[in-house]
Amino acid sequence: xxxxxxxxxxxxxxxxxxxxxxxxxxxVTEPAAMFSRTAKFPIKTLDWLLPVLIVLIITVISSIAVMxxxxxxxxxxxxxxxxxxxxxxxxxxxxxxxxxxARQKEMGDKQLDFIGTPAAYVVQTxxxxxxxxxxFLIVASFYFLLFKLGFKNPITYLQTLFLYGIVQYxxxxxxxxxxxxxxxxxxxxxxxxxxxxxxxxxxxFVYLLxxxxxxxSIATYFLLGLGFARFAKAEKPWAHLIGVFGSWIGLSIIxxxxxxxxxxxxxxxx
Length: 270
Prior knowledge:
Blueprint: H1 2-15, H2 20-29, H3 31-38, H4 45-67, H5 70-93, H6 98-114, H7 118-150, H8 157-166, H9 168-185, H10 195-198, H11 205-211, H12 215-231, H13 238-261, H14 263-266
């Protein structure tokens, strides 16, 4: 009788819903088990909204802290100037008139003067919070449609929000590491990746590919693919992992082409 009671208690404990803290710990220690267990219960708003808010707030703090370093501020101004000059060159090659080039240059000069001002911090904070949240929803929707339609995954939209939300904790850790490196070395770090070591030109296609060799990014997308597989109760996660990594690389290449060839998108480069 005692053994039956203990078995029942153990079963109840195994089937109980994990707290948000347990899900964070499980994301690092036993992600497969955590995803499988979480899939058995309704998704709570806190489980996807909290990590998104945290990563956005940390991003705001990081951007302000990094821009407070004079050397980094100068570096960003120089890179912005290079982008402006490149945009002018492309516009000139496409036959832009002198007046059009003058207006484009004037806009670029205003953009340079705006960098590091109190107003810039306000605009930047609002942009990060609002646009960051919108981008999160857009990307989550993309993955929902990808796996719902392309993989016939029975996952719900709320479950997708949870999966893409919970892995933002890895992104938060990455931002903290990059911020500390930036402050210590007085150089803007957008990521700890192979591109920083192997490619001197951060605007090249080679750098784009090498930048994907980033432990934080790889961990994020691996966990995301694993999560989709576990929520779909797939025996092997390879198809879902290929879907996540393939879309990540593919969309990055498309964005690279747009920000290097289309003047409107150049302002979002970097």
